[in-house]
Amino acid sequence: MVSRSRKTVAVEDIRKWVNKFLATDSTSPECRLACIELLEHFLFDTGNYKGFQYLEGVVRGGEVVPTRDDTRRYYH
Predict the structure, then answer these.
(1) What is residue 17's predicted lDDT score, i.e. its pLDDT?
(2) What residue ranges of the chain have pLDDT lower than 70?
(3) Measured between alpha carbons, how far is 44 from 12 in angstroms, rounded to an integer?
(4) How open is the CA angle 68-71-76, to the nearest 5 degrees?
């Protein structure tokens, strides 16, 4: 018999992954916007939306480089 893997993902895990993705320099604004749309959809639908703040920099090579970009967000 084949064992079945879990078919659900915790919204908290998705939020953490998207926050990490939005803070890195290896992503395009279009990709970040798509992740933002999906995350906000999941957060609102599950009643877990607690707001966000804009990031003032981007992680590049282990350090934060100042930048201003509306797709750089951190979700609470």
Answers:
(1) 95
(2) 1-3
(3) 13
(4) 105
